[in-house]
């Protein structure tokens, strides 16, 4: 089957078991649509996998939105890209006949940041998200309605990229909208560890 464009280069792996849950896999800077497929399959076996490639290039490295410097985001671009990605999710759900209420993001670093941005700006897009090494992407213009939505934030105690107070602040912002948020600190830096995958697997088993 040829992959339709839907606005993003992407990979789609249908559920082998008829599961109604879809994992939206969002790679980090310099990654692509292939990066998280194996991890996604191991995190929630049976789920459909939808994995887009970020459209912004930084020195040839794909990202989901522009940044001006490390940790300094181009907020106009971030907003535009967030809505663009949310539209992709809606279009992909229609095209692949997926349940729109059962899409859960699994994002790492830049991918976690755009997932958090979607939860804050387009709260109806995601049922939840595993946000690995996420920062506060932006301040939403109003409190999003996140009742019934869930997030797991996995942060590194020794992460040199994510300021220490940001995961707590992101958790507060999501909770303010009514989301159920688990925040876990790993003995880790910015890179993922086996503990991240174990915790993400455990958390995702509720879906
Ligand atoms: C990254 O390297 O991707 C940053 O840590 C996060 C971001 O820029 O969104």
- Shape descriptor reads globular
> Percent helix among the residues?
25-40%
Largest sheet: 7 strands, mixed
- What is the name of the CATH class? Alpha Beta
Q: Could you tell me the strand content as a percent range? A: 15-25%
H/E series: EEHEEEEEHEHEEHEH
Sequence stretches where pLDDT stays below 50 over 5 or more residues: none
What would the average pLDDT be, to the nearest integer?
A: 97
From the structure provided, what is the oligomeric state, counting identical versus distinct chains? single chain
N→C terminal distance: 28 Å
Across the major sheet, the strand order is 1-3-2-8-9-10-11
Structural class assignment: alpha/beta
Counted beta strands: 11
CATH architecture: 3-Layer(aba) Sandwich
Domains (count)? 1
Tally the helices: what do you get? 5
Bound molecules: D-malate
CATH topology: Rossmann fold
CATH superfamily: Alpha/Beta hydrolase fold, catalytic domain
Task: Provide an overview of this structure.
The protein has helices at 37-43, 75-96, 110-121, 166-176, 194-204, and strands at residues 10-13, 22-26, 48-52, 56-58, 61-63, 67-69, 72-73, 103-108, 128-132, 150-156, 180-186. The model has no long low-confidence stretch (mean pLDDT 97). The chain has five helices and eleven strands, in the order ββαβββββαβαββαβα. The radius of gyration is 15 Å and the shape is globular. α2 (75-96) packs across α3 (110-121). The strands form three sheets. A seven-stranded mixed sheet has the order 1-3-2-8-9-10-11, sandwiched between helices. The chain has a two-stranded antiparallel sheet with strand order 4-5. Strands 6-7 form a two-stranded antiparallel ribbon. The structure holds D-malate (MLT).
